[in-house]
């Protein structure tokens, strides 16, 4: 008898045998993402344009009725003084500044792109207020509850504010010297000239030495977007890999950074919208309330948690031994046309993750309850 195959080999075989679209799969063995076409032309040291991840977190904010009921995300409440925040004003992060926009809220994901009669603005709003309290600007932050996210492809559908004087950020954070940021300064948006820059940053030991002025380090890059990010939803993405970080907008590569600044730890995701009056960065405070809307977050990543890893291993092994053939899911790229609702989602709960057990129990419970209710109603008739 031949020796048993290793998991890695099985995955390699699965990858080769992949059918082009596998949307209805359970994804027990994980997810494959692609680097961009532009990236394929560039030299690729690892010789591959496919990346493989074991876990996922997908949040459809556009169909969420109330963000306070989503246990996978936590709205933040804390104060930062002007001095500590290196600004002219303090920042007052408050949960009331993060809320679900009603929108249609009915999950009608087909009505989102074309029809102007049905502007899809559904999502989570992060608001920077124009009315200061005790010299602090009311600001907003939403964090992923889990902090075991290492190498991964992290994506958010977002629509930014045209109101001058805020910083909108989608970032991955471990600590102040291990942080990957996409930051949008509305004061830099110039609709007359159609200039819409995004600031791409890795905060590292080098930025600490530069007094957290990342622009003085090699891992800071400003790129002009080719669209108006305040006019509609677009997908902003960064892939955090072992030796490099790739930044994207609507699946188009914006920049690649590598070297010793690339983080090495597990972290969590943060959505933030703030202002502290610092004319060199956020500017502001804004003259009217400024809203950033997040339609969804998708994360395909490897976990640093050994329980999550072994849970992935066993559910993948189980699926393989059952002879399932759709155990690895290919993640399709999002374009501007489907960024407001993100196109394909695989599942609301990670099939490999015991930590989401409560979620799945929740939906089973809901299904059971609905069935019982239906029975009751039928009985009454
Ligand atoms: C989502 O996960 C559930 C439970 O693991 C599974 O029964 C279902 O088929 C999955 N659906 C999709 C679309 O992947
Ligand atoms: C994620 O983890 C799997 C399983 O350990 C590994 O095969 C894969 O290469 C990792 N992905 C990345 C991008 O490091
Ligand atoms: C969301 O849920 C919280 C807690 O149950 C509740 O206090 C709040 O009023 C709800 N918000 C909306 C907009 O329904
Ligand atoms: C932040 O400061 C405000 C007053 O500016 C105060 O009302 C609030 O309780 C503080 N919040 C926290 C979390 O300390
Ligand atoms: C961040 O964590 C790394 C690794 O533990 C550590 O070396 C570094 O000093 C930390 N940075 C800060 C600002 O605490
Ligand atoms: C935003 O406001 C600042 C400060 O008033 C100003 O310098 C800047 O030109 C404004 N930006 C735009 C795009 O109007
Ligand atoms: C962005 O576009 C403006 C106007 O064309 C130009 O001045 C600026 O240099 C561009 N920035 C970058 C980073 O290419
Ligand atoms: C995965 O599970 C298999 C069988 O249960 C075991 O032999 C293997 O060592 C595990 N691999 C890892 C990386 O945990
Ligand atoms: C494997 O894929 C084929 C063709 O897509 C399908 O007909 C078959 O039912 C699948 N088998 C399993 C076990 O999922
Ligand atoms: C987004 O739309 C494009 C073009 O219609 C399609 O190729 C892609 O698969 C879609 N992406 C997702 C995530 O559904």
TrEMBL record:
The keyword Lipid metabolism does not apply. SUPFAM superfamilies: Concanavalin A-like lectins/glucanases (SSF49899). Residues 1-25 form the signal peptide. Coiled coil: none annotated. One of its GO terms (biological process) is carbohydrate metabolic process. Pfam families: Glyco_hydro_16. Transmembrane segments: none annotated. Keywords: Hydrolase, Signal. It comes from Trichoderma asperellum (strain ATCC 204424 / CBS 433.97 / NBRC 101777). The keyword Nucleus does not apply. This is Glycoside hydrolase family 16 protein. GO terms for molecular function: hydrolase activity, hydrolyzing O-glycosyl compounds. Residues 62-305 form the GH16 domain.
């Amino acid at each position: 008898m031949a020796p048993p195959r290793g998991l890695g080999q099985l995955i390699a075989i699965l990858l080769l045998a992949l059918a082009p679209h596998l949307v209805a799969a359970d994804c027990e063995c994980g997810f494959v993402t692609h680097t961009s076409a532009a990236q394929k032309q560039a030299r690729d040291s690892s010789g591959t344009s496919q990346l493989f991840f074991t876990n996922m977190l997908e949040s459809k904010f556009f169909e969420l009725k109330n963000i306070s009921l989503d246990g996978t995300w936590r709205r933040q409440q804390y104060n930062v003084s002007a001095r500590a925040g290196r600004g002219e004003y303090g920042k007052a992060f408050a949960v009331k500044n993060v809320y679900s926009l009603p929108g249609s809220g009915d999950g009608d994901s087909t009505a989102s792109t074309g029809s102007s009669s049905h502007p899809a603005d559904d999502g989570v709003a992060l608001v920077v207020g124009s009315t200061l309290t005790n010299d602090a600007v009311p600001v907003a932050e939403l964090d992923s509850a889990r902090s075991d996210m290492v190498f991964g492809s992290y994506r958010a559908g977002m629509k930014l504010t045209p109101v001058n004087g805020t910083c909108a950020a989608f970032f991955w954070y471990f600590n102040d010297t291990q942080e990957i940021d996409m930051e949008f300064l509305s004061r830099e948006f110039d609709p007359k000239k159609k200039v819409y820059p995004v600031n791409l940053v890795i905060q590292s030991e080098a930025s600490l030495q530069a007094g957290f002025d990342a622009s003085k380090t090699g891992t800071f890059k400003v790129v002009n977007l080719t669209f108006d990010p305040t006019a509609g939803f677009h997908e902003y993405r960064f892939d955090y890999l072992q030796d490099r970080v790739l930044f994207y907008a609507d699946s188009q590569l914006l920049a690649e950074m590598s070297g010793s600044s690339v983080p090495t730890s597990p972290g969590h995701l943060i959505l933030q919208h703030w202002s502290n009056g610092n004319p060199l960065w956020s500017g502001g405070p804004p003259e009217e309330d400024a809203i950033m809307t997040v339609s969804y977050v998708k994360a395909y990543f490897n976990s640093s948690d050994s329980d999550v890893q072994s849970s992935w291993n066993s559910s993948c092994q189980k699926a393989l031994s059952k002879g399932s053939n759709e155990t690895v899911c290919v993640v399709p790229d999002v374009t501007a046309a489907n960024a407001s609702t993100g196109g394909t989602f695989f599942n609301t709960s990670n099939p490999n993750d015991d930590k989401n057990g409560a979620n799945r129990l929740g939906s089973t419970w809901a299904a059971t309850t609905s069935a019982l209710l239906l029975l009751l109603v039928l009985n009454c008739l």
